[in-house]
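Pilot study result, target chain (208 residues):
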Amino acid sequence: MSFIDKYVTCEIPDEKVDKELHDIVMAVHQHSKNHSKTCKKKGTVCRFNFPRPPSTKTFISEPSKPDKDSKKDEKEAKEILSGLWKVIKEHENENLDVSEIFNKSGLTQESFEKYFRFITNRNTVVLKREPNEIYTNQYNPHLLRAWNANMDIQYILDAFSCVVYIISYISKAERELGLLLQQTKNEAEEGNLNAQQTLKNWNFILTP
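Predicted structure:
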């Protein structure tokens, strides 16, 4: 975990110690509490999984292995962690640390990790995070100071998923262009003269 903590953090820097980085984190690295349409694209409250749970340390959570009691355990875990979020909400203005929040929720770090396993379906990195950082996106301090814009830096647990993400990202423009051409073609076939002219222009551009 020390490797992850060395390069990735979601800490809000102390303003008195590092005002520059503190201001950058607060300006460009806070996820909106009023979730946008982008957050809800996949039918969830937030597809980026904000807010993210507090933890006294960074750990990698592995999904629990299915057994005859897994449904019961999953239900219990959801109820307990739902209680944790209620406590966080009730005390959000009191600046409590993770241990205090866990104590009020009847949890320890160990039990939190145990219950968290039942609500995740893949290996997941859970970063060390204070209650006031549950909307802070993870970053690398050196890169953020230089970039001065939002980033989403993560420790890779699944190399295949990473490759798929990269390929889909770099081919995004081609995919969108293909959809645009298909739509234009459909409109041209329906008699849209502007679309027909657009297709002629595209043919001129794309033909060697």
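One observation from the pilot: Residues 204-208 have pLDDT under 50 and may be disordered. A full batch analysis is planned for the follow-on phase.
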